[in-house]
Write a structure and sequence with these properties.
Number of helices: 3
Strand content: under 5%
Oligomer: single chain
Shape: rod-shaped
Distance between the termini: 170 Å
Radius of gyration: 62 Å
Number of strands: 0
Order of helices and strands: HHH
Helix content: over 70%
Length: 165
């Protein structure tokens, strides 16, 4: 089958030259121009949508860090509450022990004070009786006009009078 093209029939030298130039142009475009175009397109994508993706990744990482920090803060608050409770219990125990010691010391002081007051009272009563007896004998001697201390000493009158109280 042979088709008659007339004036559209190509010259074989021009066809080879045209095809060679076409392949050279395609090669030049593929090696030189298309990689530059792809690089520029990648840079533009990175400048626009790449930043958005990186920002999302950074936001996700920040949220993870925030969640970890919140968890750590909650754990620290729980630990602080536990420590406060523990020291409140220790403080209550120390206060109870101090109160018990204070009550025991107070009772001991009261007992010692009462014993001392009783001893001082007995001593004061003895001294008072002795002085009262001497003053009574002296006063009786002045009232009567003669000394009565020898009679009082022999009969122990003052001691019997005071013992009757």
């Amino acid at each position: 089958m042979h088709i008659e093209l007339g004036p559209l029939r190509p010259d074989p030298a021009m066809l080879v030259l045209g095809l060679t130039l076409l392949f050279l142009l395609m090669f030049a475009l593929g090696v030189l121009l298309f990689p530059r175009i792809e690089r520029l397109r990648a840079e533009r994508w990175d400048a626009t949508e790449g930043r958005t993706e990186r920002a999302e990744a950074v936001r996700a990482e920040a949220e993870a860090v925030r969640d970890a920090a919140l968890h750590e803060i909650a754990a620290a608050r729980h630990e602080a509450a536990r420590i406060r409770q523990e020291y409140a219990e220790h403080g209550a125990a120390a206060i109870a022990a101090a109160r018990a010691d204070g009550s025991r010391d107070r009772e001991q002081l009261l007992t010692t004070g009462r014993a001392r007051i009783a001893a001082d009272h007995a001593e004061a009563a003895a001294v008072l009786r002795q002085d009262l007896g001497g003053l009574a004998v002296l006063l009786a001697g002045r009232v009567i006009g003669e000394p009565v201390h020898t009679v009082a000493a022999e009969r122990r009158t003052v001691e019997r009078f005071l013992a009757a109280d």
